Amino acid sequence: MIFFWGTRTKVLKTYSDRDFVCENCNSPRLNYVVRQQYFHLFWIPIVPVDKFVGTYCNDCGTSRKEIYNKNGAEFNKVTKTPVYMYSWLIVIGFFIMYLVVDAIVTKNKEKEYIKKPIRGDVYSVKFKDDNNQDAYSLIKIVDVANDSIYFFQGNVCYNRSMYKLKSSEFFVVDTIANSLTEINKMYEEGVIVRIDRG
Q1: In terms of CB atoms within 10 Å, which of 3, 24, 40, 105 comes out highest?
Q2: How far from 128 is each of 132, 136, 179, CA to CA, in Å?
Q3: Distance (Å) of CA 19 to CA 32, 54, 77, 198
Q4: Where would I find the H helices in 56-193?
Q5: Coil/strand/helix, residue 72
Q6: Can you give 99-121 as a three-state secondary structure string?
Q7: Strand partners, 135
Q8: Cα gap 183→187, rounded to integer Å
Q9: In 3D, which of 175, 171, 190, 170 has the Cα closest to residue 114?
Q10: What pTM does this model have?
Q11: Helices and strands in the chain: count of H runs, count of E runs
């Protein structure tokens, strides 16, 4: 994949100075051009880098860098960098905010699911394997009766949290029972790390 990235320059604003007379053509039409340099990815601005002012005569085009010290600093100061120059940062910020909100919503749903488990709920469970390393497996609720929960255990262990089975995997059809109180305690202690319903 080709990444088109680098720096570009955008003209933000042009100011006119009618008090200056060009030494080259005697025209009183000096322009100050405020430019913004920025990093871009696929030509969409990521972050502004530098803002600078150039001067030129509007009639003959002669550039006069030494004039900058007179008014250029002021024009540079009053010209604000547009918000869109932070486009990628804004997009990334919204994406992070979405992930945080989604995690909060998911956690709140899980708290409701653990209080009222139903048949078909799948829990990702963390435990220690034979080498005392964190391992994960799935359990699936097959029945809820009074204060007891009956479930099947997955036949595969993982090194990270999972909540969906692959087509080649299955649950061991050997019913295990636990109390609702114990299941809630497992969730609070972080033994049950994810809950999937539906």
Answers
A1: 40
A2: 5, 8, 22
A3: 13, 17, 20, 74
A4: 68-78, 87-115, 180-188
A5: helix
A6: HHHHHHHHHHHHHHHHHCCCCCC
A7: 127
A8: 6
A9: 190
A10: 0.59
A11: 3, 8
